[in-house]
Every structure is written in C-alpha cells, then in structure tokens.
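Hey L., structure's done. Input below.
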Amino acid sequence: MNALIVHRTRGEADGADVRTLGCPVSTVVDMTDLAEATSPVWPIPSSLSPSRVSSFTSCPMQFRFASVQRLPEPPGVATTRGSIVHRALELLFVLPAPERTPEALASALAEALDEYSTHPDYVGLHLDDAAATKFRAECDKLIERYLDMEDPTTIRDIGLEVRMAANVGSLELRGIIDRLELDADGELVVTDYKTGRAPSGKFEQKSLAGVHFYSFLCEAVLGKRPAKVRLMYLSNGETIETVPSAQSVRFIDTRTAAVWKAVERACTTGDFRPNQSRLCDWCSFQQWCPAFGGDPDQAAVEAVAAYDASLDGRDTA
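Output:
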C-alpha cells in the first residue's frame, strides 16, 4: 500500500486553531450586536450539523439560501460521484470481513451506480455516453485508491452511516458518521470518507473542525470519546488522523453556542451578510447574492425554477 497518513497532535486541532476557520468566530459573534427585532424575519432552524456550522461561518448568505429557505441546488458531478462512492463503500462493509475483496467492491460500485441511475442527482447531470463513461472511470479510480489505503477485511466496523444527535440546551446537534469501528484495543475510531483532495494549511484545520463535532456526538450519545478520528481522502490517497482531546470536545460547546446565537440573531433581523471568498466560484446561489449584484428576494422563485429546468435539461439563462 502507498497510502500517506498524516498524524496531527492534539494542540494542532484544538480550539485556538479551529477558531480561525473560514469566517472567524469573532466575526460571527460580532454579528450578535445587531439590534433586536420584535419577531423573526426567517424561521430559526432547530438543529445544526457540521456542514451547517461550516456553511454559516463561511458565508451567512449562502446559509440563508440553503439551510433557512432550503432552496434546491442543481446536482453537481463531484457531489453525485461522492455520494455513489460512499454508497459503494457502505455496501462493501455490509459483507462479512473476509468477503470484502476488490471484486466485491467493484460489484458494490456497480450496484450503487444502478441505484443512482434514476436518482435526480444523477439524471440531472444529463451525461452523454462519453461523459457517463468518464464518470464511471472516475468512480473506479476512487475505489481503487481506497483499496491502496487500507485493507477492508481488517476493519472491525460496528456501524455504517450512523446518525447521531445530542442536545445542547435547546439546540440539537446532529451528524452522520460514515463508519464507526473498533481498533485493536477495543477503542472507538471514527472514519470519514472524502472524495475530494486533501486540504492544506488553514483549510485542513477547517476539515478537522468537523472531526471534533463527531467526537462530541460520540461522547454525548455513546458515553465514550473516540480514540482516533480518520479523514480518508480517496482522490489522492492521504489519510489525516487526529486524537480528540477533552479540550477539543469541550470547544464544540463554545463554538456551536457562538454560531447558534449568531444564526438566531440573523434569522430575527433578516441580516445574513455575504462573505466573499474562493468558495463563491462554486456557489449555486451566486446570481442572487448581493455581493455579485443579485437580489436575494428573487431566489425563492428563480432558484426553484432553475433547479426544475436543470432536471429537465432546459436552460433558463
């Protein structure tokens, strides 16, 4: 195997570093100084997940579109490919450990592709024969890379696609763990598959922020903190491992409380501020963002029409 494993010390992933991710928590907290409104302009969500926390801290306006208004987004090749590969790995681990062979994984991928053949996320891509062949080849490459990274017959999995939720005050924190397993000492290990490339620098720390969210959920729900959390980047074969600490898990309370207070205030006042960054290049809602001259109030109608058109293969431009 030629997999690259990068170990992170506790200090590198603890609160002081995580606080600087995306839109800094200090900036989010500053938003809570906005004037009180008598009643919410937008309904206040009742729960947060790692992706929602990341969305709000990266760009409150995008959070409004996706998580408050729940506007649909046209399917993307990368996202759909990732969903299919995740499903293939789930199907592989349903099998007894000795049966998790390369041939079994290839069969699992074929089954996952068949399942998605009528799914809106795949149908909406409108792939021609050449594009569909390329899509399948990219999926094949990801599962081949996975097999270079670990031997699935050695994994002592105890849960797949595990949904967890825990309350912090009136707020529900929830998440889905790709794979929960036991190591040689019987300790919990959380494994999260990533089909994109491994991040670098501050973006790596942003990925690890979600790791500690899962650690918090395990401790809250199962009464046990994971001994290790692994992020497996199938695109380039790198595995990032970190050991959650009591400090990093406690920081989830602090971080989510700050983000939640800011979300409540934004919903109450209607003030969701755009935060321009490189992520804007991939945002499905850019045309309605005021930072790009768009009108957010038009998104409720136009985003739905654009999504329906994307599924039909029509162009609304």
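The CA atoms of residues 179 and 292 lie 40 Å apart. Residues 77-154 form one domain.

-- N.
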